[in-house]
Amino acid sequence: MDLRTDIYHDRHSNPPLPLPTQVAEAMPNVSCQPDPISFLRIASMAVASYDYILTLPVELRMYRSMSKHRFGWSINVVLFILIRYISIILLTTSNVGWFYRGFSPIACSLYYSVTPALKVTQIVISQIIIGYRTWNVSQRSSDIGTFFLMFGFAISGLESFANIRTHTPDQTSGNCTPVSAQSPVPQWVFYLLSTIFDLVVIGLSSFFLINSARGISRMTSILRMLFYDGLGYIVVLTAANVLNIILYQKNSESSPETSGASFGYTAVWIMSQRILIHIHEAAEVRARRGPALPNGSGTACNVRIGRVGTSDSGRNLGVQVKIERAVMVDYAPNTYRESLSLSARDQSSIASTTASTITNGLSPSTEHGRWEWSERASVPATATDSLA
User: Fold this and answer.
1) Is 223 helix (H, G, I), strand (E, B) or coil?
2) What are the transmembrane regions (predicted)?
3) Count of domains in the chain?
4) Which of 18, 29, 154, 369 is 20 to 30 A removed from 274 (C-alpha atoms)?
5) What is the pTM of this model?
6) Angle at CA 114, nearest 5°, toward 35 and 55?
């Protein structure tokens, strides 16, 4: 057998690979279109999967802490589970409807409405999270609570009407996506309403946090965490909503599900659970700090400094002074107490320095040989105790 015979047999025994169009024809139920919308959906699913794996240890810690909680599962954990797994179901159904090409007309007529319904459910849960958080930051004001109930019901009703009742199924590409029907309410109104709610609620929350920080020398770590979480939420969610509005206006004939909707689902999921995770972690840190105070509402941190007392004239009185600084955050009356207690090595010497001690801002207590001074300043309550 010569070389020409070998080449002939190789060509006919190993036919050439099929072209991409032939692959697409052989697999009609799978989308092979390399369009930007598909890339954006794949990228959003990758980001969501990475964030899920990254936050899985936090979720397990939440479950373990709730098993030891005497009141069962807290609101924080319930909202965390809802926003987490409703978002997973939403991303799954939305992308299956976009990529899968094997829907029958009857199946698509039932399937197309699932994604819009889950979309409204996700955004309502997210709005409950930030609304309940702002209500707690406002010291659970009855006026703020009433406003949120009325405003939230109005926005949720309009969002439901703008998103659920204005869709029809579309199978022009073989898949099953909801397309905006002829309606007096455009589909982009949904994103506009979501942006308005986020701006109002996060704006009120930031206002209360800034006002609360004025009563103390500097913003505490909890206040700073709440402030920056709200700021990050409003920036990311507003950017996602504006992106969807722009893409929908440029493709008004197609469904918003073919625009940046998948990116919006991922953004709502990540930013909402980020708020809940930070609140839970702050509660864990507070629980690990020392023994509880007598009223069980805060934690204490003691600092002791030793020094020798002197009179106004500068004469050494031979008094050994021990200063204990107890910092207490009392969430019930919302007070900050700072107490200085002095115990003397020579009680007779302390008695002789009563006049000079009182002039320095200390006052005698009822306990023998002990001097105390205290001051009170207002400190805001946070959403940590209520949600965690």
Assistant:
1) helix
2) 71-90, 110-132, 144-164, 188-210, 231-248
3) 2
4) 154
5) 0.66
6) 75
